[in-house]
Amino acid sequence: MDAVVPAAGLGTRLLPLTRVVPKALLPLDGRPVVQHVVDELLAAGIERVCLVTRPGGVPIEDQFAGDPRVVAVHQPEPRGLGDAVLCAQEAVGARPFVVALGDCVYRTPAVVSALLEAGPSAVAVERLPAEQLTHYGVVAVERGRVVGVVEKPPVGTAPSDLAIAGRYLLAPSVFEVLRVVRPDARGEIGLSDALARLERVVAVETTEPRFDIGNLEAYREAFLAFALERGRAPGAR
Question: What homologous superfamily does CATH list for 2-232?
Answer without folding.
Answer: Spore Coat Polysaccharide Biosynthesis Protein SpsA; Chain A (3.90.550.10)
